[in-house]
Design goal:
Number of helices: 10
Structural class: alpha/beta
Distance between the termini: 33 Å
CATH superfamily: Aldolase class I
CATH class: Alpha Beta
Oligomer: single chain
Bound molecules: 3-phosphoglyceric acid
Largest sheet: 4 strands, parallel
CATH architecture: Alpha-Beta Barrel
Strand order of the largest sheet: 3-2-1-9
Helix content: 40-55%
Radius of gyration: 16 Å
Shape: globular
Strand content: 5-15%
């Protein structure tokens, strides 16, 4: 089975350009998280399976319905099943995990497999997947690597994550093969905790303003 690349989620991501990666260790911050994302019109969130609250957090945010909620750090069939059952509308993996990809394709759920090499990208393409995560972007050559990979993989779009921050994300977004950037620099529980979301809100606003100010993005 091949991926449905016309899925609305790819279009939405291309518009928003930011995919916040969020690990929940305390569900009481989810309301604030949602409020800040909605405030800044970044209606996307990837909740990672790096804590045992992932499923609950996905469910709470999905039920609320304000955000497009996905699951991240999905490495097993069990995790992808739990994620989708709790309302995840897309799935992100750190690697090419056949059982995760095959489950998503069957359910028509967009899946972003983690890639770093031509071999990884080819394995994703073999499933018909033309939008891949590129991870860890900074370690595997950053923008230079994406540009080189875009030669043979001219029909693939990349979602780089890992080591992306305020200082370099616009440079990534200026590059055509890049559909959006992801990471914990966009928002985090730790930042929300600092001052009940004030700094998290202004930090996100700055990122969004930088995108707006940059005509090439
Ligand atoms: C990921 O899984 O995509 C990365 O851990 C994100 O990296 P970051 O924490 O540097 O944003």
């Amino acid at each position: 089975m091949l991926a449905n690349m016309d899925h609305e989620i790819y279009k939405q991501l291309e518009e928003v350009k930011l995919l916040p990666l969020y690990t929940a260790t305390d569900l009481s911050y989810l309301d604030k998280l949602e409020e800040i994302l909605v405030n800044n019109d970044v209606r996307f969130i990837e909740v990672t399976f790096r804590s045992n609250l992932a499923a609950e957090a996905i469910k709470k945010l999905a039920v609320s319905g304000e955000l497009v909620v996905g699951a991240g750090t999905v490495r097993t069939l069990q995790e992808v099943k739990i994620a989708v059952a709790n309302g995840a509308k897309f799935v992100v993996s750190p690697a090419v995990v056949p059982e995760v990809i095959e489950y998503c394709l069957k359910q028509d759920i967009p899946v972003f497999p983690g890639t770093a090499t031509p071999g990884d990208i080819q394995r994703a393409l073999d499933y018909g997947i033309k939008v891949v995560k590129f991870f860890p972007a900074d370690i595997y050559g950053g923008l230079k690597a994406i540009k080189a990979l875009s030669g043979p993989f001219y029909d693939v779009r990349f979602l780089p994550t890992g080591g992306i921050d305020k200082s370099n994300f616009i440079e990534y977004l200026n590059s055509k093969p890049i559909i959006g950037v992801g990471g914990s620099f966009i928002i985090s529980e730790a930042l929300i905790k600092e001052d009940n979301g004030k700094t998290a809100d202004s930090t996100l606003k700055e990122l969004v303003d930088l995108i707006k100010a940059n005509k090439n993005v």
